[in-house]
Specification:
The protein is an all-beta fold. It has 2 helices and 26 strands. The protein has helices spanning 197-200, 324-327; strands at residues 14-20, 27-30, 41-46, 52-56, 60-65, 74-75, 80-84, 87-90, 102-108, 127-131, 136-142, 148-151, 160-165, 172-176, 183-187, 194-195, 209-212, 224-230, 237-243, 251-254, 257-266, 274-277, 293-297, 305-313, 316-319, 332-342.
């Protein structure tokens, strides 16, 4: 029997939300999707020149890290103040709720906070929240200074992972399944992948745990760390790679679903960390780019890029320009994608006829 998706409604586990700030505390942002969803990971970007703000339910609502800086975990009660059953609440802080300014938030639900399978891992997490059904988890731990293994709770090997020291300044370290355990990339650096044993001990994650080396950005004794972990779920998430052609001739990437969110980084060379979604879309009908997704960059405070090149299809996405961040000739790009809806639902019925 054919196996289709196990997630017919992606809005149970991921939603993108646009909102306008009002400059006042107690500003509740309610998701406008068809499902109520209490997020456990909220990534907010003002659509102008402000930092990225990442909040997670394990560290707590008022605590955040930024993807475009190497700063440690900050606490600010004027930024995000609560995770709600249908969204989140904001304080009056600059960067998340400036009056009249437009913002985007990308939001994931995990939700299980007990009973994680350790799988023989060498340490127990200090805290965690996971959804094996959606293939996504948040894990925190304290470093030891020597190689260790940490459970991720997903029951299948990871497709991608971000690791960040939260007690001290340091770059994010990124794992992607197509690069393997010997390689990683640093954020906010725009550099290509690096071959180092110090990040993941040249070991790809297995179904229960991931391996951490002895680099200070991932494992110094007594420092605290955060990992955002993602595993492939058919019809909901995909972690793959493609090769660019530096041409308007389409580069077609099949995901098995219509994407709601796409994250792209060149692994063979330097380039921005590109973030696109199904809410920030060009809709000026006189423009050839109508329907294309507007870009933001995880490594930069820069606002919306008004010259996008990628649009979604019922089964993935298409790149139609020679932009070097997503389509240099012969360059290899890794991506993460999360669904708006599956191409074929759990009953084998196509959802997204073109």
């Amino acid at each position: 029997m054919a196996v289709y998706t196990t997630i017919d409604n992606s809005e149970l586990f991921f939603q993108c939300q646009l909102y306008t700030g009002n400059g006042s505390g107690g500003h509740a942002i309610t998701f406008d999707g068809s499902e109520n969803m209490q997020p456990d990971l909220v990534w907010i970007k003002q659509r102008d020149s402000r930092d990225h703000f990442l909040y997670n339910a394990v560290n707590g609502a008022t605590k955040y890290v930024a993807s475009n800086t190497n700063a440690l975990l900050e606490t600010d009660t004027d930024t995000m103040t609560a995770f709600n059953s249908d969204g989140f609440t904001l304080g009056s802080g600059i960067g998340v709720n400036e009056n009249t300014d437009t913002h985007v938030s990308w939001n994931w639900k995990m939700g299980t906070t007990s009973g994680i399978t350790t799988g023989g891992a060498s340490i127990t997490p200090a805290g965690y929240s996971f959804s094996a059904a959606a293939g996504q988890s948040i894990v925190t731990w304290t470093g030891t200074g020597s190689t260790l293994t940490v459970p991720h709770g997903l029951g299948t090997a990871l497709g991608a992972m971000f690791v960040k020291c939260t007690s001290n300044a340091g770059d994010w370290v990124f794992f992607h399944t197509t690069m393997g355990g010997a390689y990683g990339m640093e954020l906010p650096s725009t550099s290509a992948k690096q071959n180092t044993t110090a990040w993941f001990n040249s070991t790809a994650p297995d179904a229960d745990k991931f391996t951490i080396g002895d680099n200070g950005n991932v494992n110094t004794s007594s420092r605290t760390y955060l990992a955002l972990c993602f595993a492939k779920v058919q019809g909901y998430s995909k972690f793959g790679s493609y090769v660019g052609n530096n041409s308007a001739d389409p580069v077609v990437v099949n995901c098995g679903f219509k994407p709601a969110f796409i994250f792209i980084k060149e692994s063979s060379g330097s380039g921005n960390w590109v973030m696109q979604d199904n809410k920030r879309i060009r809709d000026d009908l006189s423009d050839a780019n109508n329907g294309n997704m507007i870009q933001l960059y995880a490594n930069s405070a820069e606002g919306d890029d008004s010259d996008p090149y990628i649009y979604t299809t019922a089964n993935g996405f298409v790149n139609i320009n020679a932009n070097s961040d997503t389509n240099a000739s012969g360059a290899t790009y890794v991506y993460m994608a999360f669904a708006e809806s599956p191409f074929v639902n759990s009953k084998g019925v196509p959802n997204n006829a073109q």
